[in-house]
Design a protein that fits this description.
The termini are far apart. It contains 13 helices and 13 strands.
């Protein structure tokens, strides 16, 4: 037997296995005996007819095909061992040539691609040098004040930012229109939840008042019969409420209940610390993603379709699991989105290619840098996963393949190694100058 491997595009190749001589003759003879055992000839028991008669009944071509069917898997294994290749996709087999002396089989399958890395040491790792601005600090402080605000009823006129509880009904040409009516609706003035002019005309309204709002629907409004229409909304104001933000003092600092915070100075320091940590983490995540893109450009990889397709399926499965957490199955989601499962997989194609490419690159770096996670590191990873999902350690181990977990650790360590070898560059992001506000449009 002889085997010859030819690599083609997308890391898919052809393994030609030629079987001849005694091996082929013995396979055909064994196939003949197998076929003969099931032949029924009048005057003889099943399979017991003389060989001469059976020779006439079972043609050589039938024996040869049966020999291939019985042995093609074994010959594939022997051929792979001889050629030193291992498939990552299900092999397709084709009989290229067959006669009484030999058979030539062509097995087509994908193999793990060769990863040719360029220079991966000393690359530029650009990360933003972040700091917390006063506006970011003020925004976070005000957000916390909003959380601890009180609501009070207003006796006087409503102001922008107040919430009014209203009944309203809209009329076009004196006739109520569909979707234009509600009762006890809570509307925050300035939220822009309604068409232009609605909220603005309620500024100054008081509890108990009735108002008529003369308005015009936008030309691009979604309801065809209301596009650009002149309408009147009749509105009754039940009440007006206003948020009262707490003073920023020591009492407020204690109310937010953050460990170690007793005074307003403690609170301000903690806010800046948390914002700084958040911005640094975001900056590092962004830098990591960009660095991985840079790293990917150093490599040459002919990725087989099967790896991309497997990753697409993984992404679809992850989406299905996320959707299930909201009480919906994947088919319901697809119906709602007007998509088929194939469309969803197609949406993930580019991301899947990137994921596979990055994984192969990091595997190669781990190999070149002799990165092999220790048993202790693998055990720690299992424990971390158990803690994250609040599972028993042994349950996690029974559900996850140790080799896969070990491989994932190696990839992370490979990435950390390349970052360590990189040229770290801090930069300041230029802030966009604020554009001047456009002049207000005339109400006329």
């Amino acid at each position: 037997m002889a085997a010859n491997w030819t690599l083609k595009e997308k890391s898919t190749g052809e393994l030609i296995v030629t079987v001849d001589g005694d091996t082929w003759k013995e396979a055909c003879e064994k196939a003949f005996r197998k076929l003969a055992a099931n032949v029924t000839i009048n005057g003889f028991r099943k399979g017991q007819a003389p060989k001469k008669i059976l020779d006439q009944r079972i043609p050589a071509s039938e024996r040869q095909v049966q020999a291939v069917q019985d042995n093609m898997n074994a010959w594939l294994i022997s051929g792979m061992q001889e050629a030193g290749v291992e498939p990552i996709s299900r092999p397709d087999v084709d009989i290229r040539n067959i006669d009484s002396d030999h058979v030539e089989l062509a097995y087509t399958f994908a193999v793990m691609p060769e990863v040719k890395l360029g220079e991966y040491k000393g690359l530029e790792y650009r990360i933003e040098d972040v700091e917390v601005s006063d506006s970011e600090f003020d925004s976070e402080l005000n957000r916390m004040r909003e959380q601890y605000s009180d609501i009070e009823t207003v006796d006087g006129a409503a102001e922008d930012g107040d919430t009014v509880t209203i009944d309203y009904e809209g009329f076009k040409d004196g006739v109520p229109f569909e979707g234009g009516k509600a009762e006890n609706y809570k509307l925050t003035l300035g939220s822009h939840a309604f068409i232009p002019g609605f909220e603005e005309q309620l500024v100054g309204a008081k509890a108990g008042e009735d108002k008529e709002l003369n308005l015009k629907f936008p030309e691009d409004y979604h309801a065809e019969d209301l596009k650009g229409a002149d309408v009147v909304f009749k509105v009754h104001v039940h009440d007006v409420t206003r948020k009262v933000l707490p003073e920023v003092d020591d009492d407020f600092a204690k109310d937010v209940n953050i460990p170690g915070v007793e005074t307003v100075d403690d609170l301000k320091a903690k806010i800046r610390e948390r914002l700084a940590e958040s911005k640094k983490q975001f900056a590092e995540n962004t830098a990591d993603a960009e660095f991985l893109e840079t790293l990917g450009k150093t490599a040459e990889i002919d990725i087989p379709d099967v790896l991309v397709q497997e990753e697409q399926q993984n992404m679809v499965n992850q989406m299905a699991a996320q959707i299930q957490q909201y009480g919906m199955d994947i088919q319901q989601y697809l119906k709602m989105m007007g998509k088929k499962i194939e469309d969803l997989a197609k949406d993930y194609e580019e991301d899947a290619k990137k994921t596979v490419r990055n994984r192969l690159i990091l595997d190669k770096i781990a190999e070149l840098e002799n990165i092999v996670p220790t048993d202790e590191e693998v055990e720690t990873e299992f424990q971390n996963i158990a803690d994250m999902y609040q599972m028993e350690l042994e349950a996690v181990k029974s559900q996850l393949d140790k080799d896969i977990v070990k491989s994932d650790i190696a990839k992370r360590q490979a990435f950390d190694k390349v970052k360590e070898l990189a040229n770290r560059v801090l930069f300041k992001r230029e802030e966009k100058a604020e554009e001047p506000e456009a002049p207000a449009e005339s109400a006329e």
